[in-house]
Specification:
About 45% of the residues lie in helices and about 25% in strands. By secondary structure, the protein is of the alpha/beta class. The chain has three domains: about 5-75, Orthogonal Bundle (Arc Repressor Mutant, subunit A), CATH 1.10.10; about 75-165 and about 265-295, D-Maltodextrin-Binding Protein, domain 2 (3-Layer(aba) Sandwich); about 165-260, D-Maltodextrin-Binding Protein, domain 2. Strands 3, 4, 5, 6, 7, 8, 9, 10, 11 and 12 form a ten-stranded mixed sheet that branches.
């Protein structure tokens, strides 16, 4: 049975990276007609068109976008396989996703130890919301990600790595918040939709039928804290983030009910773990000994 060969995928990837056949041919030291033929053979085999022509340039079709995700993963795994078998150690690029809060307050010692033990691995860290990171893992754009409850992703495997205590933060002028109604209709400050902490805050507010008058969306905790400290509104975040950013004295912290305050961070991935990911799990077991490994069915 015929299968896609890695050389065809490498040619396809180069055409995408170089933005056209001629530049790809120059990089691959081939004649343009050979590159064009290989792309057409790949399209004929798959039964789809991988590119659309727009003027003099080529753009990926939706099928081409899908193939690119798989091609990048397969080529990376092929390189990793050769390197691992030759050296017995993980090598190459390891694309890892993380929540902003986890990256800022938890990962420094872990990634430092990982780099010291596995210098042949280049970790590319990207941040985002839980929803965005899970989508990127599902699409194989990143190999694994640190995400937070609540989420549902039965296709992914997971291990619990951190436990967080979430608190409500307001300006120093707000002395006490016992229920969500105490916030009135003031402004909620949060990350974009897809943030699991925002979902917890909205669930807490909704339980008391509280609707914020406005919502301001930020891309960093530094901006959120500055806005809260200035009296613009309220937010939710892990206590570890406030400590890491030396911000505990800039805002008032208010406890949340237990079911909203206690939260867990998971490392999630799809399919078989690579050698690089295996080594990260080993480091986490040493740096976060409370981790609980298992398959996530629903959260």
């Amino acid at each position: 049975m015929r299968t896609i060969d890695l050389e065809s995928l490498a040619i396809f990837r180069t055409v995408v990276e170089e933005g056209g056949v001629i530049r790809a041919a120059e990089k691959l030291h081939r004649v343009p007609s050979n590159v064009t033929t290989r792309i057409r053979q790949l399209e004929d085999y798959l039964g789809v068109r991988l590119f659309r022509k727009e003027g003099r340039s080529l753009t990926l079709s939706s099928e081409g976008e899908m193939l690119l995700n798989y091609a990048l993963r397969l080529l990376r795994l092929a390189d990793e396989t050769v390197n691992a078998l030759r050296s017995g150690k993980p090598q190459g690029t390891f694309r890892l996703g993380s929540l902003e809060s986890t990256a800022g307050s938890r990962l420094a010692p872990i990634l430092s130890r990982y780099h010291a033990e596995h210098p042949g691995v280049v970790v590319e860290l990207v941040t985002g919301t839980t929803g965005a990171l899970i989508n990127r893992v599902m699409q194989y754009e990143i190999e694994a990600a640190f995400v937070s409850e609540p989420f549902t992703a039965p296709e992914l495997e997971s291990t619990v790595v951190f436990r967080e205590e979430l608190v409500l933060v307001t300006s120093k002028e707000v002395r006490s918040v016992r229920t969500a109604r105490d916030l009135g209709r003031s402004t909620m400050i949060a990350f974009a939709h897809g943030c699991s902490y925002r979902k917890r805050l909205e669930d807490w507010l909704g339980g008391d039928n509280v609707m914020p008058e406005h919502v301001l969306e930020f891309g960093s905790y530094q901006g959120m804290i500055a806005c809260v400290a200035a009296g613009t509104g309220f937010a939710i975040m892990p206590k570890s983030v406030l400590a890491a950013l030396h911000a505990t004295g800039k805002v008032s912290q208010h406890p949340l009910p237990e079911r909203f305050a206690t939260n867990r961070t998971h490392l999630v991935w799809r399919g078989e773990r690579s050698l690089a990911l295996d080594r990260l799990v080993e480091v986490l077991a040493l740096e976060a000994p409370g981790a609980e490994e298992g398959v996530l069915i629903a959260a």
